[in-house]
Protein backbone atom coordinates (compact mmCIF):
# COMPACT_ATOMS: atom_id res chain seq x y z
CA UNK A 1 0.00 0.00 0.00
CA UNK A 2 1.56 3.29 -1.09
CA UNK A 3 0.30 5.19 1.99
CA UNK A 4 1.57 2.78 4.64
CA UNK A 5 5.05 3.50 6.06
CA UNK A 6 7.26 0.56 6.97
CA UNK A 7 8.27 2.23 10.23
CA UNK A 8 7.20 5.22 12.31
CA UNK A 9 9.10 7.31 14.86
CA UNK A 10 8.54 10.52 16.77
CA UNK A 11 11.66 12.34 15.51
CA UNK A 12 14.68 11.56 13.36
CA UNK A 13 16.82 10.91 16.44
CA UNK A 14 14.36 8.15 17.42
CA UNK A 15 14.98 6.20 14.20
CA UNK A 16 16.95 3.06 15.03
CA UNK A 17 19.90 2.73 12.67
CA UNK A 18 20.52 -0.86 13.76
CA UNK A 19 16.99 -1.84 12.70
CA UNK A 20 17.44 -0.15 9.33
CA UNK A 21 20.75 -1.94 8.79
CA UNK A 22 19.06 -5.24 9.80
CA UNK A 23 16.49 -4.90 6.98
CA UNK A 24 19.25 -4.21 4.42
CA UNK A 25 19.19 -0.41 4.27
CA UNK A 26 22.51 1.17 3.25
CA UNK A 27 21.42 4.71 2.35
CA UNK A 28 19.18 7.25 4.05
CA UNK A 29 17.27 9.89 2.09
CA UNK A 30 16.07 12.55 4.50
CA UNK A 31 13.36 15.12 3.90
CA UNK A 32 14.28 18.67 4.96
CA UNK A 33 11.33 20.70 6.27
CA UNK A 34 9.90 19.40 9.54
CA UNK A 35 12.17 16.35 9.37
CA UNK A 36 15.67 17.83 9.69
CA UNK A 37 14.66 21.34 10.69
CA UNK A 38 11.52 23.42 11.21
CA UNK A 39 9.85 24.59 8.00
CA UNK A 40 12.06 26.94 5.98
CA UNK A 41 14.68 27.13 8.75
CA UNK A 42 18.43 26.64 8.30
CA UNK A 43 18.75 25.69 11.98
CA UNK A 44 19.46 22.09 12.96
CA UNK A 45 19.12 20.76 16.49
CA UNK A 46 22.20 19.17 18.09
CA UNK A 47 20.25 15.88 18.23
CA UNK A 48 19.71 15.87 14.45
CA UNK A 49 23.37 16.70 13.77
CA UNK A 50 24.48 13.93 16.16
CA UNK A 51 22.10 11.38 14.60
CA UNK A 52 23.30 12.15 11.07
CA UNK A 53 26.92 11.86 12.22
CA UNK A 54 26.09 8.50 13.83
CA UNK A 55 24.51 7.32 10.59
CA UNK A 56 27.57 8.32 8.57
CA UNK A 57 29.90 6.69 11.12
CA UNK A 58 27.81 3.51 10.91
CA UNK A 59 28.49 3.45 7.15
CA UNK A 60 25.19 4.74 5.79
CA UNK A 61 25.19 7.02 2.76
CA UNK A 62 23.08 10.05 3.75
CA UNK A 63 21.39 12.56 1.43
CA UNK A 64 18.72 15.22 1.78
CA UNK A 65 15.84 14.48 -0.63
CA UNK A 66 13.50 17.45 -0.76
CA UNK A 67 11.12 19.23 -3.08
CA UNK A 68 12.93 22.44 -2.13
CA UNK A 69 15.58 24.22 -4.16
CA UNK A 70 19.29 23.61 -3.67
CA UNK A 71 19.55 27.15 -2.32
CA UNK A 72 17.17 26.24 0.53
CA UNK A 73 18.99 22.95 1.21
CA UNK A 74 22.57 24.25 1.14
CA UNK A 75 22.69 25.51 4.75
CA UNK A 76 21.52 22.06 5.91
CA UNK A 77 23.78 20.03 3.63
CA UNK A 78 26.82 22.17 4.42
CA UNK A 79 26.32 21.83 8.17
CA UNK A 80 25.72 18.07 7.90
CA UNK A 81 28.37 17.58 5.17
CA UNK A 82 26.05 15.49 3.00
CA UNK A 83 24.69 15.65 -0.54
CA UNK A 84 21.24 16.61 -1.73
CA UNK A 85 18.52 15.67 -4.17
CA UNK A 86 16.82 19.06 -4.66
CA UNK A 87 13.48 19.48 -6.43
CA UNK A 88 12.90 15.75 -5.88
CA UNK A 89 9.37 15.87 -7.28
CA UNK A 90 7.88 13.82 -4.44
CA UNK A 91 5.46 12.01 -4.48
CA UNK A 92 6.84 10.90 -7.85
CA UNK A 93 9.57 8.28 -7.36
CA UNK A 94 11.87 9.05 -10.28
CA UNK A 95 14.53 11.23 -8.61
CA UNK A 96 14.61 8.93 -5.58
CA UNK A 97 15.29 5.94 -7.84
CA UNK A 98 17.95 7.95 -9.66
CA UNK A 99 19.60 8.80 -6.31
CA UNK A 100 19.72 5.10 -5.41
CA UNK A 101 21.25 4.27 -8.80
CA UNK A 102 23.83 7.05 -8.39
CA UNK A 103 24.79 5.53 -5.03
CA UNK A 104 25.15 2.13 -6.72
CA UNK A 105 22.26 0.70 -4.70
CA UNK A 106 18.94 -0.92 -5.39
CA UNK A 107 15.99 1.17 -4.16
CA UNK A 108 15.20 -1.50 -1.53
CA UNK A 109 18.61 -0.72 0.02
CA UNK A 110 17.51 2.87 0.67
CA UNK A 111 15.17 4.40 3.22
CA UNK A 112 13.13 7.54 2.60
CA UNK A 113 12.59 9.28 5.94
CA UNK A 114 10.18 12.19 6.27
CA UNK A 115 7.21 13.74 8.01
CA UNK A 116 4.62 13.65 5.22
CA UNK A 117 2.54 10.68 4.21
CA UNK A 118 1.44 12.27 0.92
CA UNK A 119 4.95 13.07 -0.33
CA UNK A 120 7.75 11.29 1.55
CA UNK A 121 6.05 7.95 2.23
CA UNK A 122 4.25 7.73 -1.11
CA UNK A 123 7.42 8.61 -3.07
CA UNK A 124 9.55 6.17 -1.08
CA UNK A 125 7.03 3.37 -1.44
CA UNK A 126 6.58 3.96 -5.17
CA UNK A 127 10.37 3.96 -5.54
CA UNK A 128 10.57 0.61 -3.75
CA UNK A 129 12.35 1.98 -0.69
CA UNK A 130 11.92 1.34 3.00
CA UNK A 131 9.85 4.24 4.38
CA UNK A 132 9.92 5.89 7.78
CA UNK A 133 7.23 8.38 8.80
CA UNK A 134 8.08 10.94 11.48
CA UNK A 135 5.94 13.40 13.36
CA UNK A 136 6.62 16.95 12.08
CA UNK A 137 9.03 19.04 14.16
CA UNK A 138 6.61 21.99 14.13
CA UNK A 139 3.22 21.38 12.54
CA UNK A 140 2.10 24.95 13.25
CA UNK A 141 4.54 26.56 10.83
CA UNK A 142 4.16 25.09 7.36
CA UNK A 143 3.66 25.91 3.69
CA UNK A 144 -0.02 26.16 2.66
CA UNK A 145 0.24 23.09 0.41
CA UNK A 146 1.60 21.07 3.32
CA UNK A 147 -1.29 22.14 5.54
CA UNK A 148 -3.71 20.91 2.87
CA UNK A 149 -1.79 17.62 2.66
CA UNK A 150 -1.97 17.26 6.44
CA UNK A 151 -5.79 17.44 6.30
CA UNK A 152 -5.85 14.65 3.70
CA UNK A 153 -3.29 12.69 5.73
CA UNK A 154 -5.54 12.73 8.79
CA UNK A 155 -8.32 11.09 6.75
CA UNK A 156 -5.96 8.50 5.21
CA UNK A 157 -4.40 7.67 8.59
CA UNK A 158 -7.85 7.09 10.05
CA UNK A 159 -9.00 4.94 7.13
CA UNK A 160 -5.81 2.84 7.03
CA UNK A 161 -5.37 2.79 10.83
CA UNK A 162 -1.95 4.41 10.68
CA UNK A 163 -0.97 5.84 14.07
What does this entry look like structurally?
With 163 residues, the protein is an alpha/beta fold. The chain is built from 6 helices and 6 strands. It has helices at 17-22, 46-57, 70-80, 94-102, 117-127, 144-159, and strands spanning 7-9, 27-30, 61-65, 83-85, 110-114, 130-134. Helix 3 links the parallel strand 3 (61-65) and strand 4 (83-85). The protein is globular. It starts with 6 loop residues before the first strand and ends with a helix.
Q: Could you write a compact summary of the structure shown?
A:
This protein is α/β, with parallel strands linked by helices and 163 residues long. The chain is built from six helices and six strands; from the N terminus they run E-H-E-H-E-H-E-H-E-H-E-H.
Strand content: 15-25%
User: How are the strands of the largest sheet arranged?
Assistant: 1-6-5-2-3-4
How far the N terminus sits from the C terminus, by CA atoms, comes to 15 Å
CATH domain topology: Rossmann fold
Structural class: alpha/beta
Amino acid sequence: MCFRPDTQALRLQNVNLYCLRHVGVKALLLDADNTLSPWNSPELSPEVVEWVESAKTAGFAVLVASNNSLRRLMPLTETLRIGAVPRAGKPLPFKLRRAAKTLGLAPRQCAMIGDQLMTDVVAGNLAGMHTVLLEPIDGNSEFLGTRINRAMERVIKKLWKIA
